[in-house]
Amino acid sequence: MSCVSLSTANRVPRPADTHPLTWRLRDDGEPVWLDEYQRQNGYSAARHALSQLSPEEITQQVKDSGLKGRGGAGFPTGVKWGLMPKDESLDKRYLLCNADEMEPNTYKDRLLMEQLPHLLIEGMLISARALKAYRGYIFLRGEYVDCARHLNRAVEEAKAAGLLGRNILGSGFDFELFVHTGAGRYICGEETALISSLEGRRANPRSKPPFPAAVGVWGKPTCVNNVETLCNVPAIIGNGVAWYQALARPGSEDHGSKLMGFSGKVKQPGLWELPFGIPARELLEDYAGGMRAGSRLKAWQPGGAGTGFLLPEHLDAPMYAAAIAKVGTRMGTGLAMALDDSVNMVGLLRNMEEFFSRESCGFCTPCRDGLPWSVKLLRALELGQGQPGDIETLEQLCDFLGPGRTFCAHAPGAVEPLASALKYFRNEFEAGIVHPAHAEHNQPTALEV
Amino acid sequence: MTSKLIQTDRFSLSDDERAAIEHEMQHYEDPRAASIEALKIVQKARGWVPDGAAEAIGALLGIPASDVEGVATFYSQIFRQPVGRHIIRLCDSMVCYINGHEAIQQALHQELGIGLGGTSRDGRFTLLPVCCLGNCDKAPTLMIDDDTHSRLDTATVTQLLERYP
């Protein structure tokens, strides 16, 4: 039986020189096991890195490639690696793979792990060498049961072939890899919460600094990278920096290829490996087939629940971080969602804020109390029972829960789509307010029940 | 109902559970890290995590029972009360929302007489909401036990239940 993640990425032409992440995918969506992976040049980058390159040279190549984190925040990977302490006496170092894919509208890491488990293992092996990590964990969300099965089998295959364990490929380098499955809660994807969770604690984020590179899991130097980020590493090492930098469309400030998607009210929702810098319009029209018959694009979101909504007029923006920032939000995961006129923004935001509210870890007050309040206001507006002042209260919450006001990025991510919806579709929120003549009281809907 | 939730019998880990937890402990620097896995091991064997399990797990890992209970009540996939034979995890994230997950939820309510968090009277199904299942190009979607089902509508979802006696 083919994987759950069998998708459009399995069906499009995918030459190896332009599709480093997906060219080995099988048309039938079956996982690619070790023999097949090695026949397709698999682990040759790891062999090269372990026999020819020093850890510093690997880090430098990743830095020069311009690879940035693919989990949504987009921090330069080589720079993150460079933060690991230089003190060689700190010899217990960890590489954690963030495989806690739970961002609404994100379905990319599942594809890589279900179908190409060895690509991730090879990426982790090379990265661990660069970071001088002796042990790695793949922190996988519990619901991805097929990913867990496939990764565990691939780890066993790699161990048996001498690609994990002691003295890997005769290089003298040791690296042990474990698959750790979670037990729910979106907040585990925040890198310091992930560390808390891996240690067997409640997944509360930690204060930064100290950054995980200095004080990470069990107090040791730790690097946390997303699945897709790590899967980029073998091709960078194998094909070189110049090749990698030529992958993106001219003009793009981000480098390489990216798993991008379009879901929602489009004709053909899907996932594709595409060059950075491709206009969002091309992604929507040429890949996702445009909007469904009879429906018109009302708004779109470029990369997950924590990114802001954009309008049809923004579709010509090329998909890379700085260009999406220019039109007012973040690229996030690069998996976009299209809305048509049948979607009411108040109901949609109510659904989204219910999610963010439920998934708050409850540690800091603005997030724990502010998000349920936003849900209460949005529910009232959805039912046409909003009070005068409710929209202004929502706007205030967007400020009080914004960047710099909370302990981690959860609440700022929650209010980003809300602020953009209030900006572009204010009339839909206003329609939910009872006429002043019929208002029960002239006070906004309060937090208390 | 409350009386059902309070387990008065003394809880002890089975030999298999104990062995599985001890095996997990070896994967980490610190035994505490196995606490979530330990709860999952107990839940796999018993369907849920009964009262008393926190104390037994805490004793094995060398950490306070209150810490284990704190973990058990934090994570949404650890069940501190009995659940049905099959768990339905209904994705309620935004892409499923705009593709009709609320209609699916209503169909399940009609068929099973339960809302989110409920267990059917015959003990067959428990219905839970779940974060985005990463299947958005095939929405709406849900899981029943370990199986993921995609592109649902109200008719197919009720037929689907028949596969889980």
Would you kindly provide a written description of the structure presented here, covering whatever features stand out?
With 449 residues, chain A is of the alpha/beta class. Chain A folds into three domains: 8-245, NADH-ubiquinone oxidoreductase 51kDa subunit (Rossmann fold), CATH 3.40.50; 257-340, Ubiquitin-like (UB roll), CATH 3.10.20.600; 345-438, Up-down Bundle (de novo design (two linked rop proteins)). Chain A contains 17 helices and eight strands. Chain A has helices at 34-39, 44-52, 55-65, 77-82, 109-115, 117-131, 145-160, 191-198, 227-239, 241-245, 280-287, 321-326, 345-359, 365-382, 390-400, 410-424, 426-430; strands at 94-99, 135-140, 176-181, 222-226, 257-264, 270-275, 297-301, 335-340. In chain A, strands 3-2-1-4 form a four-stranded parallel sheet, sandwiched between helices. A four-stranded mixed sheet of chain A has the order 6-5-8-7, covered by helices on one side. In chain A, strand 5 and strand 6 form a beta hairpin. In chain A, helix 2 crosses helix 9. The radius of gyration of chain A is 23 Å and the shape is globular. The N and C termini of chain A lie far apart (50 Å). Chain B is an alpha+beta fold and 165 residues long. Chain B folds into two domains: 2-74, Arc Repressor Mutant, subunit A; 86-161, 3-Layer(aba) Sandwich (Glutaredoxin), CATH 3.40.30.10. Helix content of chain B is 43%, strand content 11%. Chain B has helices at 2-5, 15-25, 35-46, 53-61, 65-74, 94-98, 101-112, 154-161; strands at residues 86-91, 125-130, 142-144, 147-149. In chain B, strands 2-1-3-4 form a four-stranded mixed sheet, with helices on one face. The longest helix of chain B is centred in the N-terminal third of the chain and has 12 residues, at 35-46. The interface between A and B is large, with 55 and 45 residues. Chain B: [2Fe-2S] cluster binds at residues 91, 96, 132, 136. Chain B: It comes from Pseudomonas taeanensis MS-3. Chain B: InterPro entries: NuoE-like, NuoE_dom, NuoE_N, Thioredoxin-like_sf. Chain B: It catalyses: a quinone + NADH + 5 H(+)(in) = a quinol + NAD(+) + 4 H(+)(out). Chain B: Its cofactor is [2Fe-2S] cluster. Chain A: Its EC number is 7.1.1.-.
